[in-house]
Structure prediction request, 527 residues.
Amino acid sequence: MFILVVTKLVSIAEFFLFLPDSSAPLKTQILYQKRFMAKDFSTREENYSKWYNDIVQRAGLAENSAVRGCMVIKPYGYAIWEKMQAALDKMFKDTGHSNAYFPLFIPKSFFSREADHVEGFAKECAVVTHYRLKNAPDGRGVVVDETAKLEEELVIRPTSETIIWDTYRQWVQSYRDLPILVNQWANVVRWEMRTRMFLRTAEFLWQEGHTAHATKEEALEETYRMLDVYADFAENHMAIPVLKGIKSENERFAGALETFCIEALMQDGKALQAGTSHFLGQNFAKAFDVKFASKEGSLEYVWATSWGVSTRLVGALIMAHSDDNGLVLPPKLAPIQCVIVPIYKSREQYDQVCEKAREISDRLQEQGIRVKLDDRDTHKPGWKFNEYEFKGVPLRLVIGPRDVEKSTVELARRDTLEKQVLAMDRLTEVVPGLLEDIQKGLYQKALAFREENTREANSWEEFKEILDEKGGFIMAHWDGTAETEQKIKEETKATVRCIPLDDNKENGRCVYSGKPSERRVVFARAY
RNA sequence: CGGGGUGUAGCGUAGCCCGGUUAGCGCGCCUGCUUUGGGAGCAGGAGGUCGCAAGUUCGAAUCUUGCCACCCCGACCA
Prediction:
């Protein structure tokens, strides 16, 4: 059943065609490349989760660590995260936010202030109970010093609402102190039972924005604004189309009045929550007693939001674009946008070719393109081709003695695996446009895939059939109750991913209970 | 925390049932020569507390017991 789904998906992916190159006609014809399957590397069809793990490891993104559930993010994987951080950080600053940093440790008592919040996180908290080790009595290693017990235990933050709101109490007295628009880049710990690289690890990196406002309207506006920032980032930087929506009660953040989200569809037909923005109402203000004197002189509770995205986005990036030849990265987030591989036989040829390659590299760098000239003599060209293909580098330039002679260069794009030869002096003109084409092409391909895999279900039978045979997003009527969602989840493992933020009202009957419904919502099996 | 599985060189593995040479192979690594436009070839070489601990035995990677670690499937989750 699973294999059928993936076969379908692959064929859709293959169906997608090369987008027209807007960056002017190419001098030479396009050479199609015969592909052979990467050896000892799984395909999506064979085993999707093994394929995913192979990419993470072989592309040098991350590896398992000595600590169960925690990964080591390797330089190449971290470089992708840094690209994400840079783009998001700018968007946060542009919308008026500032960065700050709050403690990793949270006094245990803080958690119990907000009932839903404790309830939601209690089961996955790591707790610090002691602050000292001592030599083991038997002389072998060290043990916890039982005399060094903390008076109040410290929870390692699974999220920072509590410590931040405890702090905001000190910061807010008057309406003049509002709004507070703060973000922090941090690590958090959620003690998960089952983990997967980037998608769910016990410790992960993220950003969490925490804002305080004088009015409900302003806080809601902020919640929507940041949801839009996330959707913008996902679509324009990650090249992943997302649905914006509201979470059902079951999926809502612990302590929020309303959780908004962006949902993306992965190549295996499963949904992935890529970002959340929460309207917290006055819940945390009341729990931490954060009040301000209004213009009119009355004491009011502050209105709050919080919003975040995590290193999980790296997982989304992998699963949205990559193929059976390895990682595929959108140019905007690729640490290396263009790699140059020299070809040579003799020492003289090496010098000659590399000199030319350096010239090209410099010119492209001047245009702001992230170029890497791999002039290592320790690896062969063919090896390098496969290496960079596997790492998802969007463009590859190959330059050899024949090119130097004719002033040409071979250009290969990672997304379509097409090669072309063109005149060297046209590179600076062609490359930037090609990178844009790749960026757009990846988005269009992902969008086409999502559209192909979004289906309406009008009966329970149809619902189950789509889920089992095709996967993807299912648009169906739902009676809006937590009980129905729970039952659907138990029977099919599918959940309400979101109630879309569009106005597509349509009267109908709940696909499960038959009760009246005003609109279709998005169901899917999810990561 | 339940159910199943696996631990042998950096990685992947054979050998284990049926105890008995120097624990074999592939990839990777090192040296040299020839190579270099899609994962090079040949020759030589290095690398192992066989997960840990006890036991059975003349003898244990192999049999027994206990422990540990990891993976997969469930419950939980960004």
User: Anything to note?
Assistant: Confidence is low (pLDDT under 50) at residues 1-38 of chain A. Chain A has three domains: 2-35+332-450, 71-126+157-321, 454-524. Chain A has 15 helices and 27 strands. The two ends of chain A are 19 Å apart (CA to CA).
